[in-house]
Amino acid sequence: MEPVPIPEKLPILTINNEVLLPGAPMKLEVASFTNQALMKDVLTKGLKVIGVIPLKDELDVIKKEDVGTVALLVRISSFNYPQDTVIVMTIGLCRFVVQEVLSSTPYPLAQVELHKDVYEEEINENVGKVLENLKDIMLPVIERIGLLPLQYLHHFKDLMDNFPASYIIDVCIHAINASFEEKLKILKLLDLRERIAFGVPLIMKFFGNESDIKTRLYPSRSLPNFPGVSVIKFKSSQGKALQRHLGDSDLEDLEQRLQKANFPEHVSKIINKDLEKLKRLSPYSPDNAVIRNYLEFVVDLPWSVSSKETLDVKAAKVLLDIEHYGMDKLKKRIIEFLAVRQLKTNVKGPILCFIGPPGVGKTSIGRSIAHILNRKFQRISLGGVSNQSDIRGHRRTYIGAMPGRILHAIKAAGTNNPVILLDEIDKLGSGGYNGDPKAALLEVLDPEQNMHFTDHYLNVPFDLSNVTFVATANSARTIPAPLYDRLEVISVDGYTSVEKYHIAVKHLLPKQLDLHGLGPEMLQLTDDAIYKIIHEYTKEAGVRSLERKLAAVCRSVAVKVAESSEDTLPYIINADNIEDILGMAPYYGEEILTIPSHPGVALGLAWTGKGGSLLVVEAKRVPKSSGQKAKLILTGLLGSVMKESAQIAFNWVRSAAYQYGIVKEGNDLLEKSDIHIHFPEGAINKEGPSAGVTIATALMSLFTGLPVASGLAMTGELTLQGLVLPVGGIKEKLMVAHRLGMKKVIIPFKCTKTLADIPSCVLDEIKIITVKTMDEVIETAFEGLASASNHNLLSSKL
Ligand SMILES: Nc1ncnc2c1ncn2[C@@H]1O[C@H](COP(=O)(O)OP(=O)(O)OP(=O)(O)O)[C@@H](O)[C@H]1O
């Protein structure tokens, strides 16, 4: 085998908290920008050696006289999931000293001088003896405590024989896992005698029993002196021996694993071909790492490993109740889904898709399904995935090619029948330059096709028909239509304060106490403290922020418990002292918003993927510019549908103005001044038709000068005829109205049936008024004043 040429100009990889010593193997994770740039060049130019310099601080730069180690690159693997990472397997060859830094971008390049250690025939007999003894002592210890990875241990003795004896001290220091500072000092000591004098005590300290090891190391004299040490030469062929050994041992290991794996027939053929090719390739060929990574991925895939499914519907009910509070409708549907599976095992059931706001337990219900079925669970986040290759992998011809997320998840699960949760399916990006991810996902979800799913990287079909897919989304509106067709959508609603309280007490708090090593004997939260967190510290449909706040309380109390004596326990957190931990309540007094004191203001209810929210509508007359026509001005980051519904509401009011006595016959509202309608929280996108009735009510209030009844909110689409059409998200809207203490809510008549889903505590406290027309809305909003029969009364107010 050819010796490795070591150039005088070396590209430099910098590392922190670690030191690569000559003779020692090391796995380096390359993350920094400059190091990644270097690895790119290594891959494209096929470099075999680089320089590695340890830096104390990430921000340090390399300079003249720095000492580093020439590193032989044994293997490079790259991953882009879950994030871009390159892992490099290296072995230190010899020390070098930087003579000049030639450039620093995109990565440092330095003129170096290789350090020639003293060795061989000229080495003093005493030094040689010490090193030999050290080797004899260290070998069994290294073997016993597993200080080196198994595959290196195997050839450790051979390596020691092949390497210059001067490396023994370096390898031993590496093996005893000395501190960063100690290793750095060893690296910088260019004189072998000094290295031995500094290193041997460290090794003795590691063994603990100093006197014994000292006599074994130095049988003839108490301390060595090192006369006669002179120059030695580094033989690069010695590095080769090391590389060869490492390469072979890995290959043998891989071959054995491939033989043991239970591949389907069509896969075995391809694997054998690749394995033969790998054996023929030089270890320096860039193809070597590519084929090796591929084979390692293939062998790790669970071709024939599956979990044994246990399904007992009765037990499933109990488990669902233990793991989740409430969610009755959802639990019922899951039980039906499971019951069908129990009766007909090979059924290609629907793909359940849980739709609801963040933090309502969609992911954790998916985990429970896996638990019930006794299968492994994996979650794939589809948010922002815009390339087909994310799902289906890259072809192996690309540098840094990777399998797709589906096979990654299968590999991580270790079984071929896990439950895979496709999270945020509504956030799937639309086709990138590399193909549409939707098409790939459709194939994954299609029971007719997914038994032959072909990932581009794997390049042979993998059977996905045993995988149970479950999906989640925040809103059904944005799920691509072809995918929506394959899903059975189940909505998971937000929680009322009472439900949140029970979830906190039964699930979130015990979980957080456990995670922080606390028990109820150390920390107790009173009910009013929990309600205060729910009402004043969080504003959400789910319970994610609530869980975070409870974690913050546990963290803070954990510190106090650690510092205090037992007689001060338990810490009782109540509504008064919670501010000491969580700071001022951010949503304190939010209900004040719900009192529209000025004419021209009305309160609507909106619904987004994040849950329900209050929508304030403000209308005002403003002087028009002279000589210009009066106009309608709309502001508040509105989508096109919302702009249109504002136009409809305005024109309805315009046409009904005479009937309501707002203008005299033949006059128009838009004659004298501009009308400005604004939707506060102007930085938040607003879209949809459901604000129609609210806008019309705000305008009626403006033109009549009558404030809208207090504690009233509304939702409904308005037509030009003045009809009120049904809208979505009624449950979420009523929940937010309840949270904010609203007394009355107007909803379209056609939404009456959705009231069956609303918790009784909400219906008990809010009066629901169902309407078919805008006239009925006005009747309620102005408490009877605004009906046509009050024509004259209104006219007199103008
Ligand atoms: N009904 C419930 N009973 C017990 N715990 C719950 C319930 N609902 C939510 N949780 C807990 O709330 C936390 C957040 O839930 P999870 O992560 O499943 O929300 P999600 O709906 O998947 O949110 P996202 O859409 O943001 O992914 C988890 O710790 C979960 O266990």
TrEMBL record:
Looking up Pfam families in the UniProt record yields:
AAA (PF00004), Lon_C (PF05362), Lon_lid (PF22667), LON_substr_bdg (PF02190)
Matching entries from PROSITE patterns are given as: LON_N, LON_PROTEOLYTIC
Binding of ATP occurs at 356-363
Q: What is its EC number?
A: 3.4.21.-
Output the Gene3D superfamilies linked to this UniProt entry: 1.10.8.60, 1.20.5.5270, 3.30.230.10, LON domain-like, P-loop containing nucleotide triphosphate hydrolases
> Which residue ranges does the record assign to the Lon N-terminal domain?
10-207
List UniProt keywords, sorted A-Z.
ATP-binding, Hydrolase, Nucleotide-binding, Protease, Serine protease
Source domain of life is Eukaryota
Query: Mind listing the GO molecular function terms for this protein?
Result: ATP binding; ATP hydrolysis activity; ATP-dependent peptidase activity; serine-type endopeptidase activity
Q: Which InterPro entries match?
A: AAA+_ATPase, ATPase_AAA_core, Lon_bac/euk-typ, Lon_lid, Lon_proteolytic, Lon_Prtase, Lon_prtase_N, Lon_prtase_N_sf
Q: Identify which residues the record assigns to the active site.
A: 690, 733
Q: Does the keyword section mention Hydrolase?
A: yes
Top EC class, one word? hydrolase
**Which family is this sequence assigned to?**
Belongs to the peptidase S16 family.
Task: Name it.
Answer: Lon protease homolog
